[in-house]
Amino acid sequence: DVRQLYGSSEIGVSQHTGTDIKVDSVGVLYPNTIVRIMDDSQILARGPSRVKGYYKNDKATEEAFAGGWYHTGDAGYFDDDGHLYYLDRLEYMSRLSDGTTFAPQYIESRLKFSPYIKDAFVVGDDTRSYIGAVININYDNVGHWAERKRIAYTTFADLSQKPEVCQLIASEVQNLNIKLPERQRIQRFISMPKELDPDEAELTRTMKLRRGLVEDRYKEFIAALYGEQEKLAMEVPVFYRDGRQGVVTAEIRVNRVD
Question: Which keywords does the record carry (predicted)?
């Protein structure tokens, strides 16, 4: 019986109670606790469990508890059932051209809950009007799925671009989208024709995304997510352990999510 709660040393905010559990959320508010979600998605909280302030530091107290609200520095949102969702620290949030804020790491981690998705990076900034994603399929799981469906394929690149596989991944994206606020949903994605690889410095040895590097290396993918073409031929760089560099040539599908 695993339950989540949300709070800090300054204030307790929410937790799962009874049988009212949603695994993605941090529960419902404690009694007599009030939360306000600001335009930038910051969580502000007030309630009986808050501390009086910081010891001998009036300035820090005034800043953190301005207006009687504790400014958490965290981003989040409520669903229609009153469950609170923690997204990320404000400093890691991104913003679309209409001012919508979203948490790339939150969306990426939720995508990887799917057994068919191994890795992903989510993109969007103040020059873009919607969120896109570049997704790595889980080769083993998607391969077994394709075999059960009697879908023939030859390589990772071939499998990743099969229409049936793209539809499979689209359904996984849709499953996530229904749990997200409308403007924070993925509208287009590309299935990469190669795996992100720590040997190519795209991931750390603990398998964390090197965001700046992959966004630069795959900037053509990102541009395609915001273009008009549904298919385009691309040469994807491959870096070998012995220092050699090659390319994978593939026709890439740009997939729209309904």
Answer: ATP-binding, Nucleotide-binding
Where are the alpha helices (H) located in the chain, listed in sequence order? Answer: 58-64, 104-111, 139-148, 156-160, 163-177, 211-217, 219-225
Share of the chain above pLDDT 70, in %: 100
> Other C-beta atoms within 10 Å of 215: how many?
16
CATH number of 94-256: 3.30.300.30
Q: Which residues of 94-112 are buried (b: 16+ CB within 10 A; e: fewer)?
A: bebeeebbbbbbbbbebbe
* 246: confidence class by pLDDT, cuts 50, 70, 90: confident
d(CA 258, CA 255): 10
3-class DSSP state of 69:
coil
H runs (alpha helix) in 34-118: 58-64, 104-111
Query: In 3D, which of 245, 146, 254 has the Cα closest to residue 197?
Result: 245
The DSSP call for residue 10 is S
Residue 159 near residue 249 (C-beta atoms within 8 A)? no
Q: What is the CATH number of domain 5-90?
A: 2.30.38.10
Read off the pLDDT of residues 194-219 as tens digits, 9 standing for 90 and up.
999 888 889 898 889 999 999 998 99
Alpha carbon distance 34, 49 (integer Å):
11
- The model scores a pTM over 0.85: yes
CATH 3.30.300.30 residue ranges of the chain are 94-256
Confidence of residue 161 (pLDDT cuts 50, 70, 90): very high
- Portions of the chain given CATH number 2.30.38.10: 5-90
